[in-house]
């Protein structure tokens, strides 16, 4: 029983990390159908900027805010400099642009900061919380709370606000959205800045657990992408559930089958799910009117 | 067009003059290191160390009165580039010896080139394949994984540990060391009852550690790995409150590891490391003490950052070469090679080197010091 609890705690911790990154994919995807592969770099930037702000003497909360704002501005820059000029290009080209941007951000971070690994201090100390014979770190609770908080925020944003609906409308039909008076350029800028900010928040929250360096972005983006696909791309609920399920799958495989095959087992389950439910667990079936 | 030709001719002329000037009384030493790229945390301190030492030797009058001309290229960890640069060093720069090969990959790419050209080559990479079987012109300075395993198992034996669990990274370093350790563990009467793995970017290893802890009669945990993995394993080990001895590998023997894992979590962790980490704790009559302290002081004064084990490998490679040229009294590649092979008792930062035709590393496992982390710093464990 304590073993099972420990595997559950591990799975939820890792799952919440994946979910936070996966949630960052949703806004840009909903605004433009683009899967932003620079999303992992936003998380890396959040962590790295916070680390260097703290080492420059800033208190942790202020450093976190600075990291989120700066990364948000970088997100806007990415949209203005790389995505907007290629406005007419097909979605696949835009996705490739985001991959290029990811490589660029990674290289620039290496030059501006350094090549070392870094860690942020845990927000509420490192004393593990004991529960039913298993332990969980307070920082894991921060990550889980962060994932749930971002999920609720996004859900309210897309269902309860006019701007959120405008974002959905833009993705649904650009021309029609423009005709009813939605400023598409502005919606895209908003989408990139919010996604970048969510990515940075994820980076700040997870760095005390996962550590960070200039090159962690790709691995984060891939796991987050897998989680988002499993849950259903574009749906905040899918990102949250997909992330947690992926984390639990890995932890249970490592715990009960073999740590050698935990990544493989997780991906086999994802493939199976996508085979029977191509839209993911919570993805909406898209209906195109002819 | 005419202008261009003229410029080219003029440039060639200047180059020729320059070359003529340098060949007068200079020893040309070549180097190709991974100063940038994924192995830059190894290559960067190596390059800094070589530059510093060459300046030092030249300022003191050179080797046997001849100045050293160091020609250095950056292969960025790419074996193809390393091969190209090795060719350039041999054919265009006409160096008498090469120090380089930051990684096992680049070293293996350089080895056939130096063998054919018969130029002595000292590598700073870890793998045992570099010196086993022995290639006549290739030498190396760092310990092998196998020796690290042997040193750890020695220490376990001394503490009466017979049943252990292993948790290894899936990266090149972790996998290779895991294989070497499993290969020799039987010789020490130690049984591995758990063999867990983790990926290089994993965020939590508590499931693996929980399983290892649950094994009957388990007495210690060994973690071969590199990068953030060992730091996370150490943090998880402390989170779970496991009170078994935890052994890490020489791959994380740096202050950075203690900072990442946190001093509380890392308290009591043991690993095999070089004398460089504990220079001031060495016994006063330890022959390595002055070498290690001199190198640390010079490096810190020059670059304002602490020395690393990897820079120490470059220090030892350079000292081996200088010592060999001095003894050979010649700058012919063949004479230098023979002199390196005859190295006897050269004190470096990694250990004391005694080469032979059968041994092109020249270290034994006594050069590995068993270190323990105490109060956020390194202590000699024995």
UniProtKB/TrEMBL annotation, chain A:
This is Branched-chain amino acid ABC transporter permease. One of its GO terms (cellular component) is plasma membrane. The chain crosses the membrane at residues 7-29, 49-76, 88-105, 141-163, 184-206, 238-258, 264-284. Belongs to the binding-protein-dependent transport system permease family. LivHM subfamily. InterPro entries: ABC_transp_permease (IPR001851), BCAA_transport_permease (IPR052157). It is a multi-pass membrane protein. The keyword Membrane applies. Its main location: membrane. CDD domains: TM_PBP1_LivH_like. GO terms for biological process: amino acid transport. It is found in: Cell inner membrane. Keywords: Amino-acid transport, Cell membrane, Membrane, Transmembrane, Transmembrane helix, Transport. GO terms for molecular function: transmembrane transporter activity.
UniProtKB/TrEMBL annotation, chain B:
CDD domains: PBP1_ABC_RPA1789-like (cd06333). The keyword Magnesium does not apply. InterPro entries: BCAA_transport, Leu-bd, Leu_Ile_Val-bd, Peripla_BP_I. It comes from the Bacteria. Keywords: Amino-acid transport, Signal, Transport. GO terms for biological process: amino acid transport. Residues 26-374 form the Leucine-binding protein domain. The keyword Metal-binding does not apply. Belongs to the leucine-binding protein family. This is ABC transporter substrate-binding protein. The lineage of its organism: Bacteria, Pseudomonadati, Pseudomonadota, Gammaproteobacteria, Chromatiales.
């Amino acid at each position: 029983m304590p073993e099972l609890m420990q595997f559950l705690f591990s799975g939820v911790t890792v799952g919440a990390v994946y979910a936070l990154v996966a949630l960052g994919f949703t806004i840009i995807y909903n605004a433009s159908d683009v899967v932003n592969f620079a999303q992992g770099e936003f998380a890396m930037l959040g962590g790295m900027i916070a680390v260097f702000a703290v080492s420059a003497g800033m208190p942790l909360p202020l450093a976190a805010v600075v990291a989120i704002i700066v990364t948000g501005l970088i997100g806007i820059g990415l949209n203005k400099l790389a995505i907007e000029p290629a406005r007419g290009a097909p979605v696949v080209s835009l996705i490739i642009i985001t991959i290029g941007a990811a490589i660029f951000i990674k290289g620039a971070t290496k030059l501006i900061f350094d090549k070392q690994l870094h860690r942020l201090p845990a927000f509420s100390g490192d004393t593990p919380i004991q529960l039913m014979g298993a332990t969980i770190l307070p920082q894991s609770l921060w990550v889980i709370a962060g994932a749930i908080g971002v999920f609720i925020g996004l859900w309210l944003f897309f269902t309860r606000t006019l701007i959120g609906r405008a974002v959905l409308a833009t993705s649904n039909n650009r021309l029609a959205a423009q005709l009813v008076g939605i400023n598409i350029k502005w919606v895209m800028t908003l989408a990139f800045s919010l996604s970048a900010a969510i990515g940075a928040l994820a980076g700040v929250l997870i760095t005390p657990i996962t550590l960070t360096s200039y090159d962690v972005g790709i691995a984060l983006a891939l796991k987050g992408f897998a989680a988002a696909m499993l849950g259903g791309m574009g749906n905040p609920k899918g990102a949250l559930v997909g992330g947690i399920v992926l984390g639990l799958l890995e932890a249970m495989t490592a715990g009960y089958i073999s740590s050698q095959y935990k990544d493989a087992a997780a991906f086999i389950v994802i493939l199976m799910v996508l085979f029977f439910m191509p839209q993911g667990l919570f993805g909406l079936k898209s209906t195109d009117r002819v | 067009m005419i202008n261009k030709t003229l410029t080219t001719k003029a440039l060639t002329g200047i180059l020729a003059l320059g070359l003529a000037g340098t060949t007068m009384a200079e020893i040309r030493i070549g180097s190709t290191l991974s100063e940038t790229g994924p192995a830059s945390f190894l290559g960067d301190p190596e390059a800094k160390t070589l530059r510093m030492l060459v300046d030092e030797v030249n300022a003191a009058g050179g080797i046997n009165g001849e100045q050293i001309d160091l020609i250095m290229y950056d292969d960025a960890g790419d074996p193809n580039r390393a091969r190209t640069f090795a060719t350039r060093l041999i054919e265009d720069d006409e160096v008498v010896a090469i120090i380089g090969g930051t990684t096992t990959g680049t070293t293996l790419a350089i080895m056939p080139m130096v063998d054919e050209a018969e130029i002595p080559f000292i590598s700073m990479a870890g793998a045992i394949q570099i010196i086993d079987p022995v290639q006549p012109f290739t030498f190396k300075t760092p310990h092998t994984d196998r020796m690290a395993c042997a040193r750890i198992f020695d220490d376990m034996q001394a503490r009466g540990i017979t049943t252990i669990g292993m948790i290894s990274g899936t990266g090149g370093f972790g996998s290779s060391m895991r294989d070497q350790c499993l290969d020799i563990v039987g010789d020490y009467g130690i049984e591995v009852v758990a063999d867990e793995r983790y990926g290089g970017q994993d965020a939590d290893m508590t499931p693996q550690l929980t399983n290892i802890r649950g094994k009957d009669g388990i007495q210690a945990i060994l973690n071969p790995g590199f990068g953030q993995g060992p730091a996370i394993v150490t943090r998880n080990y402390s989170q779970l409150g496991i009170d078994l001895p935890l052994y890490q590998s020489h791959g994380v023997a740096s202050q950075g590891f203690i900072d990442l894992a946190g001093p509380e979590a890392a308290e009591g962790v043991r690993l095999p490391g070089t004398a460089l980490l504990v220079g001031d704790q060495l016994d006063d009559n330890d022959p390595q003490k002055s070498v290690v302290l001199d190198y640390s002081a010079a490096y810190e004064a020059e670059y304002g950052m602490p020395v690393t084990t990897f820079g120490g490998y470059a220090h030892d490679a350079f000292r081996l070469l200088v010592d060999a040229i001095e003894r050979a009294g010649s700058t012919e590649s063949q004479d230098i090679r023979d002199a390196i092979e005859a190295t006897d008792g050269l004190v470096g930062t990694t250990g004391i080197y005694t080469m032979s035709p059968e041994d092109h590393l020249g270290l034994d496992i006594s050069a590995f010091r068993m270190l323990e982390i105490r109060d956020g710093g390194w202590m000699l464990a024995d």
